[in-house]
Amino acid sequence: MHAFGSELKQDSHFQDHLEHAIPVQIYRHGIHVDIGWIRDFDEHAVLVGDTLYRRTAYSFISRPGY
Predict the structure, then answer these.
(1) Which residues pair with 35 in a beta bridge?
(2) pLDDT 10s digits, 26-61
(3) Are the C-beta atoms of residues 53 and 32 closer than 8 Å to each other?
(4) pTM over 0.70
(5) What is the residue extent of each domain of the chain?
(6) Burial track 22-61 (b if 16+ CB lie within 10 A, e otherwise)
(7) Cα–Cα distances in Å, from 40 out to 2, 5, 29, 31, 47?
(8) Which CATH code for domain 11-62?
């Protein structure tokens, strides 16, 4: 499991959050843009809610307990 505030980088991190419904907070250039649950992902993008985020353009932070 991931600690509160840890950054998701590897596919296994995204898979854990998808399988266990752990919320993620999304940042772009250090600015918070969204929080939600991962619905799907691949090597290029992450679907959170109805929004698709490029993995290279955004940071994804674990927020268990939200």
Answers:
(1) 25
(2) 999 999 999 999 999 999 999 999 999 999 999 999
(3) no
(4) yes
(5) 11-62
(6) bbbbbeeeeeeeeebebeebeeebbbbeeeebebeebbbb
(7) 18, 21, 23, 23, 5
(8) 2.30.30.100
